[in-house]
Amino acid sequence: MDPTQELAAFLRTRRERLDPDDFDLPRRRSRRTPGLRREEVAELAGISIDYVVRLEQARGLRPSADVVEALAAALRLGADERTYLFDLTGQRPRDPDGPTTVAAPPLARLVADLAPLPAMVMNHRFDVLAWNEEMAGLLVGFDALPPSRRNAMWLCLLHPEISEFYVDRDRVRREGVAHLRTAWAAHPQDPALTGLITEAIAHDAEFARLWEERDVKLNGRGSKAMRHPEIGAVDVHFEVLVPLQDSDQRLMICRGADEPSRTALERLRTR
Asked: Where are the domains of the chain?
C-alpha cells in the first residue's frame, strides 16, 4: 500500500461520511454526492481548495502538522482516526488533552495488584501519579512530598538523598537528563516540564553541563544498582509500558535482578 494513495482515500471517505446539516455552512445548490464538498472542507480547515484537491488526488504533498491538525478538526475525526491521519502524513500527533495529572483508574488498580513488585504510574514529564507501597519503600514516601516534587526525574537527579542511592550515579544522571530532553522535544509547550528543566539548570551546575551536551535517550527498560539505606545493595530491573488507551501515562514495574536483590526487596516489603 502506498501511504500517499491511502491518505487520499482516507480523506475522501471521511469527507463523504459527514452530514452537511451538522455544520453551520451556507445553503448551496442540491448535492449529488454524499458528505461535504471539497471547498467546504477547505473552508473549515482554513486551507485552499486546490490543496485539498491535490491531497485527495495523491499528488505527493506532505502536509505540515498544522495542516493535519486543521484537517482532523474539519473532518471531525475521532482519536484513533486522528492518530492514523498523523501516521499517514509522517507527522508527530499532538496531545489534544494536554498532560494528565491523575492516573487512569484501571492503571491505579493495576499498580496495587502488581504488589509485591514495586510499580508506579507517571505522565510524560515523569510526574508520579500512582504508586504502591513497595515503590514507596524502594524510593521515597511520596505522600510526604508536595505534589510538585512527586516527580521521578526530580527525585533521581536533584533530591539530595535519593540521587545518592545509585551506585553508577554518573550514568543515571546522564541518562536522566537525556530522557528529559527527549520528553521536552515531544512536549515543548508544556510549561511544567519546561519549569522543571529551567529550575534544574539554574540550581544544579552538573545538570546544566549535561543539558548543554544535548544527549537524547528513550529507554523503556534497563537496570540500576542501588545502595538502599534499609536493605543495602540491590540491583533492580525496570520496564516501562505505555497503555494504548492512556498514551500520556507510563507504567513502571521493577523487580530484583538476581536472587540476593529479590531477597532484599522481600525484606523491604515485610518491613
From this structure: 3-89, 105-270
Q: How far is CA 90 from CA 7, 11, 64, 137, 246, in A?
A: 11, 15, 9, 43, 21
CATH T-level assignment (fold) for domain 3-89:
434 Repressor (Amino-terminal Domain) (1.10.260)
What CATH number matches the domain at 105-270, 3.30.450.180, 6.10.140.1670, 3.60.150.10, 3.90.79.10?
3.30.450.180
Cell representation of residue 263: 531477597
pLDDT tens string, the chain, 271 residues long: the values are 788 898 999 999 999 999 888 887 766 666 677 789 999 999 999 999 999 999 999 998 889 999 999 999 999 999 889 988 988 888 876 665 567 899 999 999 999 999 999 999 999 999 999 999 999 999 999 999 999 899 999 998 888 888 788 999 999 999 999 999 989 888 888 899 999 999 999 999 999 999 999 898 887 899 999 999 989 999 999 999 999 888 899 999 999 999 999 999 999 888 7
Contacts of 138 (CB under 8 A, 6+ apart): 118, 226, 228, 236, 254, 265, 268
In one letter, which amino acid is 67? V
In whole angstroms, what is the distance from residue 109 CA to residue 93 CA?
28
Q: The whole model's pTM is what?
A: 0.78
Residue 165 neighbours by CB distance under 10 Å? 21
d(CA 206, CA 173): 9
